[in-house]
Amino acid sequence: MSPILIAGAGIGGLTAAIALARRGIPVAIAEKRTRFAEAGAGIQVSPNAGRVLEALDLGIALRRAAVRPEALAISRWQGGAPLLQMPFAPPAPGATPSRALKRADLHQILLDAARTLPNIRWLIGRGLVDCAETENGLTVTLAGESGGAETVEAMGLIGADGLWSRARQIAGDAREPSFTGWEAWRTLIPAAGLPAALREPAIALRLGSARHAVHYPVSGGKEINLVLIRAAREARPGWSRDGDAKDLAGIADGAPAPLRQLVEAAPGWQVWSLYDREPAAMAKGRIALLGDAAHPVLPFLAQGAALAIEDAAVLAHELAAGLQAGGTASVPAAFAAYATARQSRAARVQQASRDNGRSYHLGRPWSFARDLVLRRLGADGLRRRYAWIYDWPAPG
Question: Which residues are catalytic?
Answer without folding.
Answer: 216
